[in-house]
Amino acid sequence: MDASNKDELPSADSDEVRAMFSNRETREAYRFLLERRNDPPTMAEWIERATAVLGKGNVHSQRRLRDVRDYFDVAAKRRPGDGEWVYQLEGRSQSPVADKSERISPKLQAEVFTVKGRFCQMCGRGPGDKVKLQIDHIVPRSWGGETVLDNLEPLCQEHNNGKKAFFASLDPHSGAMKAAINRGNPWERIGELLKAFAREGRWTPVELIAVVARDTHKGDPLKRLRELRFVLGWNIVAHRAKVEGVTQVTYELRSWEPWPEEGAPAAVSEYERKRKREKGEKNEEGTEE
Ligand SMILES: [Zn+2]
What we know:
Strand content: 15-25%
Helix content: 40-55%
Number of domains: 3
Bound molecules: zinc ion
Number of strands: 7
Shape: elongated
Structural class: alpha+beta
Strand order of the largest sheet: 5-7-6
Number of helices: 11
Largest sheet: 3 strands, antiparallel
Low-confidence stretches: 1-5
Mean pLDDT: 84
Order of helices and strands: HHHHEEHEEHHHEHHEEH
């Protein structure tokens, strides 16, 4: 391979690589692979090197070398001549692992694609449009989102980055998000979020309501908002504003009621039953305000 065809890779001492690999042994493994890019080493050679540099070399050293794959493509190849397995650093990984704790097993990734489709959930583009998909945590891990099927979705790189930037801008509210997200039902999750914003004298962006409302069986966050208002008696006002040509919707919580003793889901079910009965009795009259 011609060296000019290779993309530029960061040095093992760069801040970038330090941020990727907090473990020094992994950084040394990367350094070794980078040095030996044109003459890829065997695992035995790496263990020898690890022993020399770090004073130890064992099965963990093997794992450290493989950890480099979290951010870089490292191919295992048969060396021409002696046929030994060697590890060649080929470049940056196209689907880097942002954080080790966010690693999603290949099996789970396949499940996400099977269940949600092999396309970006925001723009619908996919491999057919030459767009690479990434698996995104719908509720970020930093807000208590779990690495489970329900909380994962395919996004294209553009929308994944956009979403990450949007969420990063909301970091000051991560405490509120955490409190809201761990509630057991969408009404309480939305309600607690609105309360957290209201306590700071702020209005809640609709995007965040959609994030906390997430309930695979109940869906529609706006319906939940209506139920908070008409069933549970909360005073919520919607505001629309154009910012740089984009309509932004926020919700202002003016007053709220304590959560019903039987729980919000039961209260809403009871209200629906009652409404159906009344509809039946009144027939065409209608009971909505
Ligand atoms: Zn997209």
